[in-house]
Design a protein that fits this description.
By secondary structure, the chain is mainly alpha-helical. Among the domains are: 53 residues, no CATH class; 56 residues, no CATH class; 143 residues, no CATH class. Helices cover 66% and strands 0% of the residues. The protein is built from 14 helices and no strands. The chain is elongated.
Amino acid sequence: MNIELTDEQKAIILEEWNKNPDSPPAIKRLTQIAFPDISDELQDGRSKYGRAVKAYLSEHDLKARGAHEYQPKESVTLTDEHKEFIKNNVSLMSSVEIARTIFNDASISNLHPQTRAVNDYIKELGDEIVSFENTEEVPEDDYKPVKTFSACLSKVLKYAPGDIDKSKLTSSDKKNINKLIGYLSTYRFIHQINCYTNQSDRDLFESSFVRYTNDKPDLTQEEIDQYIVLSSEVIIAASIQRRSERLQNLLDTTADDTEGRRINMGLVTAIGTAQTEYNQCISRQNKLLNDLKEKRSTRLSKEIKESASILNLVELWKDEESRERLLKMAEMRKEVLSEEVQRLSTMDEVKARILGLSEDEVING
């Protein structure tokens, strides 16, 4: 059976292609984002899904890169102007933000060679600057969700060690782990975590999501999306804290002691704004978490009541069925006994039975 791409899937494929048309994405990547729910073995050009993607690309005279094809790293040379901009802004901007600015390309991510070139130059500067981020933590690959039980169990033990005992795994624990594998493989989760250009942010996002969801095997798709949003708020709060600390360090550094320690009011205002944003972020987290707990509690209570009602009906039905069966068996026994009594009441029939003759033989000879 041929696969027909929807308009939405076609748009997703073209959007991914246009991010870097000079370095075509792999067919597996395009198949994965067009069909996020299919299994791994179907996410290549040989499957019917991969063939559908390739057929669509051929309509536009495009050819995706095969998974076996070597993709050489593009060499990027920074100009003196680029290097000067990096020096002046490295303490206030991430390497991705710098790369997007100096190359005037908003589609650049941490996986692009432009970003790697910026990272390499920042490393060369060494102690000469205070970097906005740890360049050693900039990931160069997309996030790969866990696929096995043992790998997912390791995530839970790492991020929520008190929630599970590895030496005494219950059936409930195993169910939770298997459901978490599915949660971590959803397209929205993978898309969100790949948006973070710092490995620490990725780890924090993943750890927050695992801690929130590892013991909830009953989540709806809507609730999973909300827990992703909640985990994103954790990253936003951490980012605001880092910004606030940098602003405070700048304030301490630029204060002028020679004239009564003049205070840079611009920095003071920025610090106050950052603190307000942080408090608002924490409030959003608390509200969203409480809403999720309340909604899930209400849903589970309703399900328990419905299950209890069904169980009661089943028990009543079973009792009624048992009573009817016993009554029917009693009536059948009465009928059998009545017929037997009638047969025994005829001596000729008794004699015939003793002699081994049937009713037909007695009558017809």
